[in-house]
Write a structure and sequence with these properties.
single chain; alpha/beta; Four Helix Bundle (Hemerythrin (Met), subunit A); Rossmann fold; seven-stranded mixed beta sheet; four-stranded mixed beta sheet; 10 helices; globular; binds ligand LNRAV4D5; IF-M1Pi; S-methyl-5-thioribose-1-phosphate isomerase activity; Initiation_fac_2B_a/b/d
Length: 346
Amino acid sequence: METLRWENGTLYFLDQTLLPHETRYLSLTDYRAVIEAIKRLAVRGAPAIGAAGAYAVVLAAVAAAREGREGFAARVRAAAAEIAQARPTAVNLRWAVARQLRVLDIAAGEEPEKVVARLVAEAARICAADAAANRAMGAYGAALLPPGARVLTHCNAGALATCGYGTALGVVRAAHAAGKIKMVYADETRPLLQGARLTVFELQQDGIPVTLITDGMAGYLMAKKGIDAVIVGADRIAANGDVANKIGTYSLAVLARHHGVPFYVAAPLSTIDAAASDGSAIPIEERDAAEVTSFAGVAVAPPGTRVWNPAFDVTPADLVSAIITEKGVFYPPYNFKDNQEVLPIG
Ligand SMILES: CSC[C@H]1O[C@H](OP(=O)(O)O)[C@H](O)[C@@H]1O
C-alpha cells in the first residue's frame, strides 16, 4: 500500500485519517492543500511529511511557473516558507524543503519548466532514499533482537509514516522475515490512535503477530508478560541524542529503564537536527483540545474542559539504549554534531 505517489503533476496520498476502515487516496495539485493535509494528519509521520513537503514545493513551483519567469524563484520561496511551517516538530519537513530550496539555488536563471523538472527529481530522490534507508535500518535493528522477541512499539512508525517499509516497523518487518518476532505489542497511542488504527492495520496486512494495548497498560505488560525491546520512531533527534517522538514515548523509556528493557529508536539521518544541541531546542507541537476531549471523534469530556495536548514529548538521551539509522547503530554518549553523515538543514 503506497503512502504517497507523484503522477503527471498530481500528488496522490492515502488519507490516513480514514484508515483502517476506508482506503481513499487524495489527489492534490495545490501546495496549500498539501499543507492542510499535513496539518490534519491525512499524511503523517516524519519522513512521509518530509516527502509530502518536497512535492508541495513542486506544486508551488508549477503554479509559480504559470505566472511567468519574472519573480518565479521568489514565489516558490514564499510558498516553501509556508510549507516548512505546516507542522513544527518533525525536522524532516524543514530538511526536505531545504533540499528543494538548494535545487532552486542551483537552477537559478534556468527556465521555470526546467526548474520544476529538477524539483520533481529531487523529491523522487528523497522518497527513494527514505525507502532504502528504512530497509538498511531494518537490517541493523533486527540484528539487535533475540529470537522469539516480544517487542513493544508506540504510535505508527511504519510504511504509512514513511516512503515505504517503516522505521520502527521496518525493524519489526526485518526481524519477522528472519523469524525472530514472537509478538509485537502496539500501544493504541491516544489521542489520535495511530497505533490502534495504523500499526495494527499494517502488521495484520503483513501477517505479523500484533496485540493491541492501551497506553496505560505498557508498564504492567513489562512487569507481567515481559518485553525484550521497546522500538519507536522519532520526529526529531537533537545533536546530543535527545529524542522527540509521539507523546507517551518518554513514559515508555522510563518504564523500560525501570524494567531493564532496551529502548531503541529507529530513525533516518534526515530526522537528526544537528543544529539542535539538545531536546530543549526542539519545538513541540500542541494540538486542538478536541482531540483529547473526544475518543475517535465522540465527545467524552464535559464541555469546556481545560486541556493540554502536546503531540510529542522528549526522551532524554540517557534513556535511549541505541539509535538505529541507515548508517548503522549509534550508542551513547551520542554526538551527532560531529557526524559528517548528518545532513545539515537550512
Ligand atoms: C517514522 S516517523 C513516525 C513518527 O511520527 C508520528 O507522529 P505523527 O503521527 O503525529 O506524525 C510519531 O511520532 C511517530 O513515531
